[in-house]
Amino acid sequence: MSRSGERVLVAMSGGVDSSVAAAMLREQGYDVVGCFMRLGSPGEALDAEDVCDTGPTRIGRGCCSVGDAADARLVAARLDVPFYVCNFREDFSRIMDYFADEYAAGRTPNPCVRCNDWLKFGRLREFARSLGIERVASGHYARIERVHGRAHLARGVDEGKDQSYVLFGVEPEYLEHMLLPIGSMHKNDVRAEARRLGLEVHDKPDSQEICFVPDDDYAALVERRRPEVHRQGDVLDAQGRVVGRHQGQHRFTIGQRRGVGVALGYPIYVVHKDAVRNTVTLGGVEQLHSQGCIAGEANWFIEPFDGWRSCRAQHRYNSPAVAARVRMVEPGTSDTYSGRRGRFELVFDAPERAVTEGQAIVLYDDSRPDLLIGGGWIETAQRTVGR
Question: How far apart are CA 312 and CA 276, in angstroms?
């Protein structure tokens, strides 16, 4: 359907997904403006000539990478759309600080969700508005659907690529201005469309790492930003006995089995971390199970409700959504974001493994499991077996 020149800012990362998203919107009649977010890499110097806040610029060194920036620019040129490079390096430092702080506090962060909240649909939206553009689009595998006259976030049709989980923090009212063009497509169809359009990125591999930890050594990054975490501590067994030593609790995650540095004669996992005491506790698989959790920073896409409500809950990006019940325990306020309503308690129908403090827990409608109803950040996992 033609949009007769309605302007939209497309976040172009240089990958096949965002490139096809931009091309599809252009074919639909939108006046497409491309934008690459220059985030910077750890230790990278910032050149003044790389910065542009008001218009097209040359591509400098950047992150996700120089190659990604060049690919995005080439796609924009092929599509004949204006292309901007936004310097968000200072803003992105907030993401890395959050990442380091969460590990230092004994939690496991999810920087991709925070990046979507704070940058892709936060700072990027502000930039769009500075250009007089209300709509922002991306190449995420999720959909915007209208239910009872309101925009709702739904899963992408490609179950293996669905990214609705990482978008749960988007402000509900902003969904009206958000476009997700490839959410109704499968990945192989996206690549086929890129080939049809003659886009050189049609066979570009998907990114598999956290963009600011390209060597996958997240512990080293945490230690560079928070040197105080790099200190020895005790490894404990389930009874609290010292069974070994470690080089910092931030080097472990809940559910980890390999590389714990201790052998107890039976399968053992990291079941608890104490950042204050700098201890790591090992136990059997039964100690990994949780009956529920308490989550904060709730973001709801539905009206407030009383008592318990059935839902489907997903507590990790790559885990399935499972049957659960949820209730609001602290309504919160809507002074800033209409969807942010305090905290909630969630109880699984059956115990779940490795529910981890610091991770996002995202809730889907019980009767329509592809429709997202809310989510929050896990503050406390309620273990079925005491530590």
Answer: 34
pLDDT tens for 181-203 read 999 999 999 999 999 999 999 99
Q: Tokens 């915007």 — which residue?
A: 144
Which whole-number Å values give the CA distances from 293 to 26, 205, 299, in the listed order?
44, 36, 16
Helices (H), the chain: 16-27, 66-79, 89-104, 111-115, 124-130, 187-196, 218-225
Q: Tell me: the pLDDT tens digits for 12-58?
A: 999 999 999 999 999 999 999 999 998 865 444 433 333 333 333 33
List phi, psi (to 5°) of 12. Answer: -110, 115
pLDDT of residue 3: 63
Can you say whether residue 43 is alpha, beta or left, with left for phi > 0 and alpha for psi between -120 and 50 degrees? left
- From 144, 128, 135, 121, select the one nearest 177 (Cα to Cα): 135
Distance CA 58, CA 338 (A): 39
Q: CATH 3.40.50.620 spans which residues of the chain?
A: 7-139+181-203
Whose CA is closest to 365, among 194, 170, 164? 164
Separation CA 99–CA 359 (nearest Å): 11
Q: Which residues are catalytic?
A: 115, 211
pTM for the whole structure: 0.88
What does the block give as tokens for 255?
């559910």
Q: What's the angle, vertex CA 383, arms to CA 377 and CA 387, rounded to 5?
A: 120
253: exposed, middle or buried (Cβ count in 10 Å: 0-12, 13-18, 19+): middle
CA separation for the pair 224, 63 (Å, rounded): 19
Neighbours of 217 (CB within 10 A): 10
| CATH 2.30.30.280-classified regions of the chain | 231-283
| Fold of the domain spanning 7-139+181-203 | Rossmann fold (3.40.50)
CATH domain 231-283 topology: SH3 type barrels. (2.30.30)
What is the C-alpha to C-alpha distance for residues 105 and 94, in angstroms, rounded to an integer?
A: 16
